[in-house]
Design goal:
Blueprint lengths: L2 E5 L3 H13 L3 E5 L2 H10 L4 E5 L7 H11 L4 E6 L4 H10 L3 E4 L4 H13 L22 H14 L5 E4 L6 H10 L8 E5 L5 H9 L16 H4 L4 E5 L9 H10 L1 E2 L8 E2 L3 E6 L3 H6 L5 H7 L2 E4 L10 H12 L8 E2 L1 H9 L5 H15 L4 E2 L1 H6 L18 H15 L4 H8 L3 H11 L8
Parallel strand pairs: 1-2, 1-3, 3-4, 4-5, 6-11, 6-12, 7-8, 8-11, 13-14
Antiparallel strand pairs: 9-10
Helix pairs in contact: 2-3, 6-7, 10-12, 13-15, 17-18, 18-19
């Protein structure tokens, strides 16, 4: 049974939220103001707190700070009838999970509550607990070794490089490092290095002065400055343009940012966590990534195992996603042993993201109280792959992945979006893989 502490100075609002959550199977504690909330949280800690922002005798930020002192990883959602941008920014900087404006529908609030609790942290057994802000589900030895190393690294202030295949949970691991560090109450920001053109990426990372380029009508703070005292995730660092790599190297070495159009550097205190699904040594050899930047990022290295190397986690992950997409209150279907065996035998080239997509489709297409082998067939899109995707003797996993990509593209006439959906991966990952393997460009429509 999920637990929640509801804090609001208006009795009708407290009663309505308590009634809705109780009817949905939650264990609810209510408080009428900040002081009352801290007393009740001390007596009975809850993994989730929903609090009004403005109350007599203390605001919601006081509630957040107080409960975080007792339980650093507790999830906090703010409700307010007087939303302001500075107030919202302050709430998120303090570590709020979400900020909702009244009146808010209970369905939306309930979905938000489930989402933030689903991102509850991993314990030493790989399961969720209320002492952090992210979840890596599983208890296989391969995952536990990675989690233990991540926690040791989190206790230092070193920059981190995370290597893993697409869909393995690199961002969740980065959030775990942040939430287990001394910076956990400070911002955690993320930038996808593959999502911006070079000129925009430079401004996004380092900021710019007013008039630095055409269209720069006002000064902009970059992500390094915005993440001051916190953690900055540089996702898919292998896609960082070569021209920007010396500037990033200087920031890592000097902890100073040069905004575009300014000559005076800005000091920053930021921990950088970089992730990659590409082998950076190969990019270094190809002249696409600077060796000095690679070694500077590799001070602390984490490798997240792909799902095929921790098959014993598939059962727990499947149950986790079933709870997410078919919650208990909606007659969550069971998984038959035959289907579970099929899932555990599959190699999951799209890793956890592919498994999540499968469970989501299977739950949506479910025709009864149990997911059987027919769910596997129902969730196959179009026709099965042709013969080249079958593993040949002596064929490496890399060769097999390339063959799988070629087969999916061929089966869908070169349509990347449909091929990505077939494989259970996102279109961006498909584009990255096509570029990585040098596959033919998109066919004309």
């Amino acid at each position: 049974m999920s637990q929640v502490l509801v804090v609001d100075d208006e009795a009708p609002m407290r009663a309505a939220l308590e009634d809705h959550f109780r009817r949905d199977g939650w264990q609810v504690t209510t408080a009428m103001h900040a002081e009352d909330a801290l007393v009740k949280f001390r007596e009975a800690p809850a993994p989730l707190v929903i609090t009004d922002m403005r109350m007599p005798g203390g605001d919601g930020l006081g509630v957040l700070r107080g409960v975080r002192q007792m339980a650093p990883g507790v999830a906090v959602i703010f409700l307010t009838a007087f939303a302001t941008v500075p107030e919202a920014v302050e709430a998120m900087r303090e570590g709020a999970c979400d900020y909702l404006v009244k009146p808010v529908s209970f369905e939306r609030l309930k979905e938000t509550a489930r989402r933030v609790l689903a991102r509850a942290p991993a314990t030493s057994a790989g399961r969720r607990s209320p002492d952090s802000s992210c979840a890596l589900v599983g208890s296989s030895p391969a995952l536990l070794r990675t989690l233990e190393r991540a926690r040791r690294i989190a206790g230092t202030d070193m920059d981190v490089l995370i290597e893993a295949e697409s869909g393995s949970g690199k961002e969740l691991l980065a959030r775990l490092v942040h939430s287990a560090s001394d910076r956990r109450h400070q911002p955690f920001l993320a930038v996808n290095c593959a999502a911006f053109p070079e000129a925009l990426l430079e401004s996004e990372l380092f900021g710019h002065a007013r008039g630095a380029f055409t269209g720069a009508f006002s000064a902009k703070q970059g992500k390094f400055e915005a993440a001051h005292h916190g953690t900055l995730l540089l996702d898919e660092i292998g896609d960082l343009p070569l021209a920007l790599q010396p500037k990033l190297l200087r920031v890592l070495q000097e902890r100073e940012v040069d905004r575009l159009g300014e000559t005076r550097p800005v000091r920053v205190d930021v921990r950088v966590v970089a992730t990659t699904n590409q082998p950076l040594p190969a990019l270094v050899q190809a002249g696409k990534f600077r060796a000095d930047l690679y070694y500077r990022l590799k001070v602390a290295l984490l490798s997240l195992p792909p799902l095929r190397e921790r098959r014993e986690d598939i059962r727990e992950l499947t149950e986790h996603f079933l709870e997410k997409y078919a919650p208990r209150c909606a007659a969550r279907p069971r998984i038959c042993p035959a289907l579970l065996y099929r899932l555990e035998q599959h190699d999951w080239p799209g890793n956890i993201r592919e498994l999540e997509n499968f469970v989501r489709r299977a739950a949506g297409l479910s025709r009864g109280p149990e997911l059987g082998l027919e769910s596997w067939e129902d969730c196959q899109q179009v026709a099965p792959f042709p013969e080249p995707c079958q593993r040949a003797a002596g064929q490496t996993l890399r060769e097999m992945e390339r063959s799988l990509l070629e087969s999916a593209l061929a089966a869908h006439g070169g349509n990347r979006t449909r091929a990505a959906r077939e494989l259970g991966i996102c279109p961006r990952t498909m584009r990255n893989k096509i570029r990585e393997y040098g596959l033919p460009p998109r066919r004309p429509a």
